[in-house]
Specification:
Blueprint: H1 17-25, H2 30-45, H3 52-65, H4 69-83, H5 86-100, H6 106-126, H7 131-143, H8 147-160, H9 165-177, H10 181-194, H11 199-212, H12 215-229, H13 232-245
Helix pairs in contact: 2-3, 3-4, 4-5, 4-6, 5-6, 5-7, 6-7, 7-8, 8-9, 9-10, 9-11, 10-11, 11-12, 12-13
Length: about 250
């Protein structure tokens, strides 16, 4: 029921930023294109890099406003790198990761993963204890086929912080994928002790019980999810899945 990652070897050549921005320019209305051009001309005239970050953010805002999100992320990341801000770099990394699930082009997906990895690595260079960056990098390693490298980073986090929810979520999902269902159940139950209303953890826990053949336990958890979310569309989806189990 719950979605999962599809890790695999990294064999896709990333798209170039030039190809991405040229495709995005073709989607702009004339007024938006003029606004972008004005800010780009302003950037070209700046000689002091300390002034560029704010202009990059303005440019990012225009692209985001026009729903050209990969380009928006690129300029937000440029500002974050100039500012050397751990918070901004983490945000930019997460922004790129979120785009991956929305993108159908594999070369663009790979470019987004590369951009996210660069942002997270820079954030980690600024703060070696930055767990947000570590989890982001681990997610990328898993997505691009370096699963054990990602798992190692996640385990380092959970050794120091056994209750770290994002790390346990990702390790639990990987345990389901590898058929280690008891380990997955332990991790998701641990998460739910800390966050009883974590619906994602509940869905993965139900999936683990379902794959283990304990359908009654899975059905019980799916019903609990319905009560928590209380959304008609969500409930219909859950009911359809419940009916398929009976």
């Amino acid at each position: 029921m719950a979605g999962g990652m599809s890790p695999g070897p990294n064999t896709v050549k990333p798209a170039s930023f030039d190809s991405i921005i040229n495709a995005s320019r073709r989607q702009l209305l004339p007024a938006a294109a003029d606004e972008v051009k004005t800010i780009e001309n302003e950037l070209a005239a700046i000689r002091d890099s300390s002034q560029m970050a704010a202009v990059f953010l303005r440019l990012a805002h225009v692209w985001e406003k026009n729903k050209e999100l990969p380009v928006a992320g690129f300029y937000s990341a440029k500002a974050a790198k100039l500012e050397k801000s751990r918070k901004m770099l983490n945000f930019a990394g997460q922004f790129f990761l979120e785009r991956v699930n929305e993108t159908t082009s594999q070369p663009v997906q790979q470019w987004e993963l590369d951009q996210a990895a660069d942002c997270y690595q820079r954030a980690l260079d600024l703060d070696k204890d930055n767990d947000t960056a570590k989890i982001g990098l681990a997610t990328i390693y898993v997505a691009t086929g370096e699963t054990m490298k990602g798992v190692g980073m996640l385990r380092d986090i959970t050794q120091k912080e056994p209750d770290n929810v994002p790390a346990n979520m990702l390790l639990g999902r990987l345990s389901i994928q590898s058929g280690q269902l008891d380990k997955a159940i332990t991790r998701f139950e641990q998460i739910l002790k800390k966050e009883p209303g974590n619906v994602d953890a509940m869905l993965y826990l139900a999936e683990a019980y379902e794959q283990k053949g304990q359908k009654e336990k899975a059905l019980e958890i799916y019903q609990q999810c319905k009560q928590l979310v209380n959304n008609p569309e969500f409930n219909r989806s859950i009911d359809q899945h419940i009916n398929s189990l009976k």
